[in-house]
Amino acid sequence: MSEVPVEEADSAKQSFEGLTEGEKEVALVALTVIGRDPAAGTEIPGWRPPTREYTYTTPLARDSAEAVTVVYQHTPGMGATVVYYFRDPQKLPG
């Protein structure tokens, strides 16, 4: 799978458009990782095969206490569909 079909998910597209430029940059990095390996995220329990729902979180910056989380569904053979994005407060280590 070469890319996550964001265009096919209207709610995701609206949410992506609502991100700031910096948030969009880190979200695109997350989408690249998800596109290479949809199982790179953390699976949300309760979804029955074949479709599974995942979250993938990436920090806004190396020392940032905030991140962007991408919530997406993956169905083998059909690729990943982004459900939504949200800004996610994180706890800094140490």
Shape: globular
Mean pLDDT: 81
Low-confidence stretches: none
Helix content: 25-40%
- Our measurement of the CA-to-CA distance between the termini, rounded to an integer number of angstroms, reads 37 Å
Oligomer: single chain
Q: C-alpha Rg, in Å?
A: 13 Å
Determine the strand fraction and express it as a percent band. 25-35%
Number of DSSP helical runs: 2
| Tally of separate domains | 1
Strand order of the largest sheet: 1-2-3-4
Coarse structural class: alpha+beta
Largest sheet: 4 strands, antiparallel
List SSEs in N-to-C order.
HHEEEE
According to DSSP, the number of beta strands is: 4
Write a short abstract of this structure.
By secondary structure, the chain is α+β, with helices and mostly antiparallel strands.
Quick tags:
33% strand; 4-stranded antiparallel β-sheet; alpha+beta; 94 residues
Q: What does this protein structure show overall?
A:
The protein has helices at 10-17, 21-36; strands at residues 42-43, 52-59, 66-75, 79-89. It has 94 residues and is α+β, with helices and mostly antiparallel strands. It has one domain (1-67). Strands 1-2-3-4 form a four-stranded antiparallel sheet. A hairpin with an 8-residue loop joins strand 1 and strand 2. The longest helix has 16 residues, at 21-36. The protein is globular and about 35 Å long. It starts with 9 loop residues before the first helix and ends in a 5-residue tail after the last strand.
